[in-house]
Amino acid sequence: MPVVGYLILLNKNLVTIENDFGHLFPHSPWRLLFIYYGFLSLSIAAIIYSMRCPIQIQKYPSPVEYMNSELEFLTPFFRANRLTDQMRDDLDRVTSRQKRILDIGTHQGELNSVSFFQHRTPQSDDDRRSYVEILSRWHWGLADTSRVTECYCCAIAYSVGFVLLLVLALCTFLEVTRYTIDHLFSLR
């Protein structure tokens, strides 16, 4: 969309038409710019999200959905071991921000009780299932709180895009409302 907007906005024929017939659409240049930059900002945010957001966050909006969807896949012994190894690596790279958000200090007992730091995975299916539930919940949480810079850039780009389009929509709504009221009272 922004590429097409760029072609329309900077088209010399459109500039000539506007100069010749500017009295017919006096508000269009700023509206076109708001539409262009609003959609450009939304496109940038969507690109950042699709390229830098962890896969489990893109696929599952909550740790419960992640756990429910992936539990049967992750429960077999070799996959539980792989998830355990991945969690050990993730926990070694935890930032102070993640510790604060996830309140890791309070949950340190839970982390130790599921054998994160011990090299063993429960052998029975029920124990392994509850173990994988806890692992997957923490795995999703760590992924959700990672990549802070990309998260802020994405949020800012989405916000700017939505604000630009909201201002445009609000101005259009007010103009249509004013036009309707003016014509309703002029008919009397």
Question: Keywords, please?
Answer:
mainly alpha, 10 helices, 188 residues, 2 domains, 79% helix
Ordered list of secondary-structure elements with their pairings:
Blueprint: H1 2-9, H2 12-21, H3 28-52, H4 55-59, H5 63-74, H6 77-92, H7 96-102, H8 108-113, H9 125-144, H10 148-186
Kindly describe this structure.
The longest helix has 39 residues, at 148-186. Helix content is 79%, strand content 0%. The protein is mainly alpha-helical and 188 residues long. The radius of gyration is 26 Å and the shape is elongated. It folds into two domains: 2-53 and 149-186, no CATH class; 62-146, no CATH class. It has helices at 2-9, 12-21, 28-52, 55-59, 63-74, 77-92, 96-102, 108-113, 125-144, 148-186. The chain is built from ten helices and no strands. The mean pLDDT is 76.
